[in-house]
Every structure is written in C-alpha cells, then in structure tokens.
Design goal:
Layout: H1 3-15, H2 30-34, H3 40-49, E1 55-60, E2 64-69, E3 77-82, E4 87-90, H4 100-110, H5 122-142, H6 155-196, H7 198-204, H8 220-228, H9 232-242, H10 251-270, H11 277-287, H12 293-297, E5 301-314, E6 321-328, E7 334-342, E8 345-346, H13 349-352, E9 358-366, E10 375-380, E11 385-386, H14 396-409, E12 416-425, E13 448-450, E14 456-458, H15 464-472, E15 477-484, E16 487-495, E17 498-501
Antiparallel strand pairs: 1-2, 2-3, 3-4, 5-6, 5-9, 6-7, 7-8, 9-10, 9-11, 12-13, 12-15, 13-14, 15-16, 16-17
Helix pairs in contact: 1-15, 3-4, 6-7, 6-8, 6-10, 8-9, 10-11
C-alpha cells in the first residue's frame, strides 16, 4: 500500500463512513462520534476523556446523556447531550463545538461505559426543558397571524394587516437612520486615526496608553458603537482590525488598508440608492443587514448535483460557525452554506452534518449579492450520498482571474473558493548535525501548490499540509480550499474518488 493510501485509510477511520449521527434510539459508533469533532486535537483530547474514571454523575436515558468532568475550574464542568439532535451543552469556556468534554462523554457512551438511569440529573432536566421552551416559542412565532383565511378576511383584518405593514416600514426607516448616524461617527473616527497617526491612535486605545503585546484592543469601543447602531458587520470588521497592531512587521499597512475599506463601505452606504442592485445588496450585507431565509428561497433556483468540497469551522467567531462549500457538477458554480452553533445546537443540522465528499441533488438559492457566494439549499431530490468522482479542477491562472473579477464586483471580498490541480511543495528542510530533520523555519520559504503549467501559489501553513503531501506522494492532486490575499487554505484533497479532510 502507498503512503497516500495509508493516509486515506487513517483519515477514513477517523472521519467514519457513516453519517455523523445515528438513528434515534441507537447507540452510536465511535467513528460516528469522532466525525462530529471540529479538529484533530479535539478527537485526541476526547479519546483521553472517554475513560470512565474521568466522569462522575454520568448517565443516559433514551433522549439525554449527561455527566460531570473535573477540569481547570474549581467546580466540575456540566455536560449534557441531546442524542436525537444532536445538541450539546457544556459549562466549559471552550469555543469549539462540540467541545472535547461533550465528545469524550459521547465516546464513553458509545463504548458502553455510561450507565442507564431512570431519570436525568437536575442540570440535564433544566437544560432540556429550556430547549423545549425555546422550540415552542419559535413554533408559536411561526404560526401565521390574522386568524381567518384570506378568503374570509374582514375589513378589520385588512386594517390590521396595513397596520403591521406600516409598522414594519417604520422599523426599517428607524434602523436606516441609526445605521447612517453610526457610519457618520465611524468616518469621523477614521479621520482621527489618520490625523494623529496610527502608532499614536493605537497606543491611545490601550489601557494606560501602552503599546506592548499585552495592550488593549484599540477599536473595540467603536466596534461596540457600531453594534449599537445596528451595523454589526462593521462592528465585526473593527474587532478584527483591533488585533492587527499585534500581528507583526508591516501592521501599519494592513491596518490602513482595513480603515480604507471601512471608509469605502460607509461612503457606499451613503449612495445606496444609486448603486446597481447586486452591489447595493453586497453593501447592505457587509454593513450587517440580514436577508431572511424565505426571501432567499424566493430567488431563482439553480438545480444541480452538488458535491460537498470543503468544510471549515470557525470556533473563535462570536457565534461558532461552520462553512460548507458546494460545487455544482453541471453548472460548475460554487456555493457557501453556513450553519451556526446557537445554544448548544446547530441552527441547521442538515447543513452542518453534510459529509465531506458527499453529493446531493438539490436546488441552490443564492443570497442577493455580486458576486453571489452564500446560498441556501432549497428542494432536495435525494439524500446525501458518496460522490462518484472528484470535481473538475482548474489552474492557478483561472483562480486568480476569478478572484480579480470578484474583487472588481465586491471591493470588500476576503475569501474565494478554490478548486485546483497541483503538486504540494514543502519548504527546504535543514539537517541537524546528528542527521535528524528539523521542521521548516517559520519565516522565509513557505509551502506552495504548483499547477501543471508550473505556476505556484502559496499555501497557508497548518499541520495538515503534511497530510496533503503524503496523499499526493509528490504527484499532482485535486485540492479544494479558500483563497485569500495571504494564500490558499487547503481544506480537502482527493485520493482517486475519496475526499480527505485537511
């Protein structure tokens, strides 16, 4: 067996060939549990935590799984899992979803190490009751208001409908005023940053005016103001810019570029009614306006067989997020699906748990934007099934041309889907006097992906690049990932017809 095949075998064992959740009432396999893990370190930690001695007050009923685990805090962490969801709750501070404690408890249960109990523990009952109450409130909000059917509507019903419409218009106008006022303050703040100089403005935003690596986040107050103004997208961008001064050499250039993009966004919002429809939708999205699911599903459908080409978790986000990339077999378009971990459960489990490399015959509806990327799945004609072949890749020149066209349409674009054929090339390795290989130096040379024409692009480093190198065996392979100005983040590599997560 080749080195690449060995790696594929190991990855298949970790990821599992089954769906990440088992039928209701069935005890899961360890492979199904490990497939839920957000990364390799979580899998390893969960395996250690699965020992029975780790847990106290652990138990299970047909619907719930719970236990206490002693961690770094003074009190044990409380872990509860709703098996049918699956949904999770852990009192630890981890931003990963599910965390290592929930995975460890699930592994112990899968191994038959958690005893059956007649009743759940008090904290498990409280959490399950709260989840049911939220679900009931959401169901109540989803019930159409107005009582009588449309054909039986009375003048009073019509008047009530007009009143609700007028109230909605008033709310939208009020929000637009708040956003406009907040963005006006933002532009004045941006001018101040440039007027007094970046080093001085950054230092002034830190506790005590310090400038060390332990200093504060200089833009957090303005980010909070943007959230108050309901411009949450701008607030998120400012929080990201707060850490740029701690990012090393060249930070003033990066910070000034970020400020320029925010200034451009605020000016675009001032002329929103004059912009083309696609660009106006992009500006509204970047500001923080949301588009409802039903509004998205009303957009034209793109029917195709869609292959899951990449999955990426962002546990550090304000709300932990999973990004799922699709690629249409016939249309050759990419689509980005998002799932959010809210209150211990995925907002859309059917999206979050789509297996990498699977294929689904469905309609995709894109959010209004130019270029369109984010989407919702509409009608699904088949359940996800294993893909029969690798996707059709492109080359580096094609990727960079698409990226340039995307930037021309959306100047705030930060990520672009990539699907390439190339050979991974590691940086040169220095031999120690004893003959042992040393890891590549953190600076200087970097990893690259070289396409068949000999054109290379940088790969953003992660330990999984060694998996990519092993699967390739030094030969061209199909790689899917996310392209950014800093390089390509590789998410998936294909070994023959099998998708291997990186």
């Amino acid at each position: 067996m080749s080195v690449g095949a060995d790696i594929v075998a190991v990855m298949s064992t970790v990821a599992g060939e089954t769906a990440p959740h088992a039928p209701s009432g069935a005890r899961w396999t360890t492979e199904a549990v490990l497939a839920l893990a957000p990364d390799d370190s979580s899998r390893k930690a969960a395996t250690v935590l699965a020992r029975p001695a780790t847990w106290s007050d652990a138990g299970t009923t047909p619907d719930l799984l719970w236990g206490l685990c002693l961690g770094s805090a003074s009190k044990p962490y409380q872990i509860v899992v709703e098996i049918s969801g699956p949904a999770y709750r852990c009192s630890c501070p981890s931003r990963k979803f599910p965390c290592k404690h929930a995975l460890g408890l699930l592994l112990a249960w899968a191994n038959g190490e958690v005893p059956d109990r007649p009743e759940p523990s008090d904290y498990a009952v409280a959490w399950a009751s709260e989840r049911r109450a939220r679900a009931e409130r959401a169901a109540a909000r989803a019930v159409p208001r107005g009582g009588p059917a449309a054909g039986d509507a009375t003048p009073a019903d019509a008047a009530e409908a007009r009143r609700r419409d007028e109230a909605a218009v008033a709310r939208r106008a009020q929000r637009a005023e708040r956003v406009a006022s907040g963005l006006a303050e933002l532009q004045e703040w941006l001018r101040d940053q440039v007027r007094i100089g970046l080093p001085a403005s950054v230092g002034a935003g830190r506790p005590g005016g310090g400038s060390g690596a332990d200093g504060g986040r200089h833009a957090d107050l303005m980010a909070a103001r943007m959230n108050d103004a309901m411009a949450t997208g701008v607030g998120s961008a400012l929080r990201d810019l707060s850490v740029v001064p701690l990012s090393g050499e060249g930070w003033p250039d990066r910070l000034l570029a970020g400020y320029a993009q925010l200034h451009l966004l605020a000016r675009a919002h001032e002329r929103l009614d004059e912009l083309p429809a696609g660009l106006a939708a992009t500006v509204r999205s970047r500001i923080g306006y949301t588009t409802g699911r039903q509004e998205v599903l009303a957009q034209p459908a793109v029917p195709d067989r869609w292959l899951v080409t990449g999955v990426r978790d962002s546990p550090e986000a304000t709300v932990p997020t999973r990004r799922v990339w699709l690629r249409g077999r016939s249309c050759q378009r990419s689509a980005l699906l998002l799932a959010f971990a809210v209150n211990g459960a995925w907002s859309d489990p059917d999206i979050a748990l789509l297996p990498l490399g699977s294929e689904i015959d469905a309609d995709v509806h894109y959010y209004p934007a130019d270029p369109p990327q984010r989407a919702q799945l509409g009608q699904r004609r088949t359940a996800p099934a294993a893909g029969t072949q690798a996707p059709e890749p492109g080359d580096v020149d094609g990727l960079l041309a698409q990226w340039a066209a995307g930037l021309a349409a959306d100047p705030w674009l930060t990520t672009w889907p990539a699907l390439l054929t190339g050979t991974p090339v590691a940086p040169a390795v220095t031999l120690a006097p004893g003959g042992d290989d040393l890891p590549p130096a953190p600076r200087g040379e970097s990893w690259h992906l070289v396409d068949p024409a000999g054109t290379a692009i940088p790969l953003r480093y992660s330990e999984s690049l060694w998996t990519l190198l092993a699967v390739s065996g030094g030969n061209p392979v199909t790689v899917a990932g996310e392209w950014t100005p800093d390089g390509l983040t590789a998410l998936t590599v294909w070994h023959d017809r099998q998708a291997v997560a990186l």
